[in-house]
Amino acid sequence: MRPSTTAEKQAKLEARNLVKHFGLAGSTVKALDGFSLTAMDNEFVALVGPSGCGKSTFLRMVAGLTDLEEGTILVDGKPVSGPGPDRGMVFQSYTLFPWLTVLDNVIFPLRKSELTSQEREEVAMGYLEAVGLTDFAKAYPAQLSGGMRQRVAIARAFAARPSILLMDEPFGALDAQTRGMMQELLCEVWEQHRVTVVFVTHDVEEAVLLSDRIYCMSARPGRVKEEIPVPMPRPRRAGLETTSEFIAIRKRVMELLRSEIEANGTPRPS
Amino acid sequence: MSVKRNRTGPVADAGRPSASVRSGLLPLREEISPRAYAVASVSLVIVTLAAWIFVTQRGLVDPIFLPGPKAIWDAAVSMIRDGTLWTDMVASVYRIMVGWALSTIAAVPLGLLIGNFRLFEALFDIPIALTRYMPVVALIPLTILWIGVGDTQKFMIIFLGTFVQEVLMIADNVKSVPKDMINVAYTFGYSKWEVLWRVILPYSLPGILDTFRLTIGWAWTYLVVAELVAANTGLGYRIMAAQRYLATDVIFLGIVIIGILGMITDLSLKFLYRRLFPWMKEGD
Predict the structure, then answer these.
(1) pTM for this structure?
(2) What are the angstrom distances between the C-alpha of B133 and each of A81, A223, B100, B146, B170?
């Protein structure tokens, strides 16, 4: 069992007092207001909140794809400036390169490494095996189902060996069954290849199932409302959803979210 | 092992509808039998040809307005014999190739710049808006005044007719790359030039090839117009000259040859597309 938050452990990611506005239909909207979050080394952190609360905006800021306005984001104690290979990202939309085979997609981030082409292929095949897609190495993305495409995207993100993996509702576009399998798969892959993960979702069950700690966000402007540890042992396997511990945590997170949504009316769907 | 872990099942079936929805010759947005497709694809051509033969054989129309297949065939044979058909085809194809190539050589880099960089989009915004609806045909007299009636004037008309639209279409091809696909390459540590070369360019190539296919088609139109107005060789010239002598069979021959050459270009580019971009094909 892993301690989820301990003082002696190194903070991998530290976001402090972030403020962010963005333009929406001609007016300016405050997306984040005094948002702070910490993720420890090799910790799996989930970020849940009502639609439009700025979860994705925060991820994009960590990835360096959106500029900071106020506040700081530190990765390994150094401020973030622009995107870099130390912060990988898995998007909800399909981002596989359609002209590359599944294998070449996973090799893509490795082309920046010192490895020989044979080593790259071996590494990529290893990650494809972890997501169960070695048989499809030579297929093109257009020939795969949505779930399979996201498995390749996850393999590709892990292959890049980022020190933080940012996941922006990666299973949001998948059907419930595929989603369940993907959660299990991600759990397994992550337990094999530990990395700090920040996982954005609006699926509470998914957050409890996967993470060591859940940050619950307020409605817009988003800030962290509460931090809920998920001290369940790993490896986590099917059946976890029925334990009383799981149910209690899920209930707590759901209540927080519901009070947030009710207090602010129905938010605009994002 | 991969077989055990292959949990989301085999390649997705796009959800074939029931046989009742697919049956008949008019299933909504669904495949029909290959035989029905083959028959349908030639039937309009056969019906048109049959009607043409019928009308001309029976003498229902004056051959001066509509010559029969025999007359056109004879015209073709005599023009092949005296070499004019070949000379005209070579002249026209040469003008198309050079005119279109000049347009493309200029349009590709400019389209890439406009599609990728806002600064270039802004720079060319007003000039393009002013010129894109300019009637090129109206410029023919001016181009003749400037550079005469030689091949250069034909290149210029083709260039003027295709260039601006080609630039805009290539800019659109480039802009079709999803933003997150670019972002994901950034998160792998690729620089913006690497993203341009390794992501934006390969993604937009199929669209650019399609743009080429369309613009070559326009090049044919502009060439023939230019040749109709002023030329002493070429298929457009031949059609114009034939009109003076009421040689309707030669007019028809010219039109048919242009149609066939256009079709050959189109089919070869479609073939090239399938060979170059096998990854565009969905499913199995």
Answers:
(1) 0.83
(2) 45, 52, 19, 22, 17
